[in-house]
Amino acid sequence: MSHAIQDRPVSATPRRSLSHAHLPRWTPAAIAVGSIAAGCGIGLAAGWHSKVQWGLVSALLFVLATFAITTKVEGKRQAKDRVATSLIWVSFVLAVVPLLSLAWVTISKGLEVLDGYFLSHSMNGVLDAEAGGGVYHALLGTIEQVGIATLIAAPIGLLTAVYLVEYGNGKLAKAVTFFVDVMTGIPSIVAGLFILATWNLMLGFGPSGFAGAMALAILMMPVVVRSTEEMLKLVPNELREASLALGVPKWRTILKVVLPTAIGGITTGVMLAVARITGETAPVLLLVFGTKLINPNPFEGAQSSLPLYVYEQYAVGTDAAVARAWAAALVLIAFVMILNLVARGIARWKAPKTGR
């Protein structure tokens, strides 16, 4: 039995394009400019004197405008992606603006006093309320105290991290990890009180730069251990296995393969620890006491340091003292920056060479 095949009209279905409309590449910049203009206008109309409020309103308008415009043109899914990107940029700007503001204020105010005389003279014979004097005694004390603390903490922290990553498997490793975590969160004043109770009160030693350096080393060690431990974990196990397969002892594999591979990250971790202790004031105030005289001997007598000098001069409150405080703060920032640049250069020099 044959069936007649009837031709049925095929309904015309509209073509759906696989590509959607896209906003121009300059759209985020245009939205940012418009948001800033709108935020400033709202701030002026509302009578807000704080530029921080203007910035927060502008950031909020930027995110909302990005979402609304992208949803209208590209769709809701792409709008969520752009909003996430916008939030990242807003967070970045909110983090960078205070940093740039701090750097600008410190440089502009510090350069008013900072010169060769300021770096080469102490406060000996100069009243705090008077103009003049310098920061040489505090700079010398900071260099010695930070240097001694680094000589104590860096080797101990490095060896501890090597033990935890390469050898530690039992209860001792767990105990060391626990105490490192505890030491990471202790306040600096607690480290100062510990050295004061043991070194000064129990053993009878007086104030000195070495006592302050020991307290700073306590604060530095857990940072070195944690950062070095994470860097050693990033070294591929294939490198260790290749060295061991060639008959190289484990200690030599660590010394010649593992540590050179991670030297860049280890150096960065040590410099982060140095940057942390360089600005500490409480242990220095307890153990070093501070002085206006130049004391090159860190093992005997009171010394000064840059953070303590900044605190003392700012506490005086006169224009000359506050100007010296800003100049000392600028010297402290430059000191940490120079240390970081030197450490980066050493790490790049000692890092294993890649390519031919």
Q: Classify the oligomer.
A: single chain
Instruction: Give me the strand/helix succession.
Output: HHHHHHHHHHHHHH
Residue fraction in strands: under 5%
> Uncertain runs with pLDDT below 50, 5 residues or more?
1-7, 10-18
Number of helices: 14
Work out the radius of gyration: 30 Å
Residue share in helix: over 70%
Strand tally is 0
The main pleated sheet reads as: none
Termini Cα gap: 82 Å
Features:
single chain; 356 residues; mainly alpha; 72% helix; 0% strand; flat
SSE layout and pairing:
Elements (H helix, E strand, L loop, with lengths): L26 H20 L4 H23 L2 H35 L5 H5 L15 H32 L3 H14 L3 H15 L6 H25 L3 H9 L4 H12 L1 H16 L3 H6 L18 H11 L2 H32 L6
Describe the 3D structure:
The protein has helices spanning about 25-45, 50-75, 75-110, 115-120, 135-165, 170-185, 190-200, 210-235, 235-245, 250-260, 265-280, 280-285, 305-315, 320-350. The protein contains 14 helices and no strands. Helices cover about 70% and strands about 0% of the residues. α5 packs across α13 and α9 (about 235-245) packs antiparallel against α10. The longest helix is centred in the N-terminal third of the chain and has 35 residues, at about 75-110. About 30% of the residues are buried. The radius of gyration is 30 Å and the shape is flat. The chain has about 350 residues and is mainly α.
